[in-house]
Amino acid sequence: MATPFLTGSYITCEEYRAAPTALNTNNLVPGGTQTDQDNELAGIIARASRWIDNVARQPLYATQGAQNERVRIDDQGYLVLKAHQDRVKSVDALSYGATFQSMTAISTPIPASQYFIEENRILFSMLGSGVQWTGSLAFIAQPRSGQALVSWTYTAGWATTRLASAAAQGASSITVETASGIQPGMLARIVAGDAQVNVQVASTYTPGSTTVPLVSPLAAAWAAGSWFGEVPDDGKEACILATSHYIKERKGGGFTIASKGRDVQAEKQDIGIELIQAEEIALRYERRSP
Hints:
By secondary structure, this protein is an alpha+beta fold. It has helices at 13-18, 34-56, 233-249, 264-282; strands spanning 63-73, 78-82, 88-99, 102-105, 115-118, 121-125, 146-156, 160-162, 173-175, 187-192, 195-200, 211-213, 227-229. The protein has 4 helices and 13 strands. The strands form 3 sheets. A 7-stranded antiparallel sheet has the order 4-3-7-1-2-6-5, with no helix packed on it. It has a 4-stranded antiparallel sheet with strand order 8-13-10-11, with no helix packed on it. A two-stranded antiparallel ribbon has the order 9-12. α2 (34-56) packs across α3 (233-249) and α3 packs antiparallel against α4.
């Protein structure tokens, strides 16, 4: 049976326990049941994941952002948008106008062909969209530079979820718990403990659906609760290190570390080193200035 998994966590309890940390996670709650231990570990992993986000100055897991702003229109007729998060996946909604009190919405879902994404910079094309702007915003017939007021939402960040049900060998699709951040053609992984496989989402995938078709059938079966997403290896490593830090940090509160024959000073040094190592990794994903 799968252990708890909190939204936005970069690893599962099973992944942490499979990592070579030498930490005992079955006594996190003194006298508690296995369910208590699992709940506590899931909470620590979620705390470690949010610490990584704080270092990076942005949520790294897939979330939806919203911005209201004045943007530039380049001489090719593109709205030049800059998100406050990196790794933008999709533009989910967009309205424009001369004032925020009088906005016109673009029909949704917005096709990916209508915009180009480069990390946090998006060129959004209004040409050929059927939109007719007038007055100071009239540039469709003859593209011209200028400005527009825009209200828009987007999804940015790594997909990180789990299989909602078991996936059999040879299955051409999987079912996940949440669909945030999953996109057609996306490269991802399925992870269960220390076992993993690379997969690619089929181009026929409908964003927002928890049923995810794959380019190639699964070569092996995977249990419900297996992690699915695109968090890179070093992101997972940072989460493991930060989780170990928080567990060790609480040693004085009755937690026992499984490693033997080590003095207290050495343990304290390890606590600091692990968080420093995790920070070095998290800083690789620090938000770019918009």
